[in-house]
Amino acid sequence: MENIVLYILLGLLAGIFSGLIGIGGGIIIVPALVILFGLTQHQAQGTTLALMIPPIGILAAWTYYKQGNVDIKIAVLIAAGFFFGSLLGAKISIGLPDAVLQRVFGAALLLISLKMIFLK
Taking the model in full, what pTM does it have? Predict the structure, then answer.
């Protein structure tokens, strides 16, 4: 735990990006824990999921909601799917070697970024 300040700064950075453009856990925290802090891909993903248990984004979501930018029905439906999907994904992930999981994670980020940059 000698990196307490660095972990807090990582959380602050992820929080800023989350409030600003809706990203944080998967795109900021997971790679940082692997690359900067030396966690395995499994450890980084598990740690990131654990930190999302409390209502991390409640203040940012409330800010968006007050401006009319939150569809509660859609959020609840996605949350229900996410709740069960995350269990299934975790069970699959545990069975994969760390190197494979890291490549799958990187490929997903790459494909999503290419789609967002080059396609409508």
Answer: 0.79
Distances (CA, A) of 42 to 39, 57, 67, 70, 95: 8, 23, 37, 32, 10
CA–CA distance, 100 with 77 (Å, rounded to integer): 30
pLDDT tens readout for residues 45-67? 999 988 888 888 899 899 999 99
At 71, phi and psi to the nearest 5? Answer: -100, 100
Q: How far apart are CA 63 and CA 56, in angstroms?
A: 13
Is 49 buried (19+), middle (13-18) or exposed (0-12) by CB count in 10 A? middle
Tell me which amino acid residue 2 is: E
Residue whose C-alpha is closest to residue 7's, from 44, 55, 42:
44
For the segment 62-78, what is each residue's pLDDT rounded down to a tens digit? 999 999 999 999 989 98
Going from the C-alpha of 91 to that of each of 38, 61, 87, 96, the distances in angstroms are 23, 29, 6, 9
